[in-house]
Amino acid sequence: MRAVLRIPVRPVTASGRAQGHASRPSHIPLPRTAAAPRPTFRPLTIRTARDAVGAAALYLKWLGYRDVVQPAERPSSRIDLRAAGLIAQVDSTTRPTALREVECLWLNALNTSVSGVLFSLAGYAPDARERADGLGIPLFVMDLTGTPQPVNSPADELVSTGA
Fold this sequence. Notes:
The chain is an alpha/beta fold. Helix content is 29%, strand content 13%.
């Protein structure tokens, strides 16, 4: 009787490699599967309306927007900050932000083909918040420490995905 030597045979792909083997060389590390953690946001204490705009600008940079521009004087459009693909309005009044502010921001963003974000120190009127949810506008409320907190689901999504 003859002994039969059985060698496992692996099917070969069109590229000539055996199936079941990794296609990367062993000296190349696998890519990271987890996102790199974002550093902690360092807020700017708010004492003036200009500080509120500065705190919002820092937050947008922390989210990953580059080249956030703050005009020297507030334009008639009430857009306080601009970045690539984004405009932001900061309401530093002591009244809840009204529906009109949300709609004006949305129209300005629509007109320039960018996204809009709204920051408020005093929160939002219920109809303004409802309209922002319907339009997909991220809303943030800031306390006097300068730390923005997301108010609606578009804001939560922006925080989780970044720029």
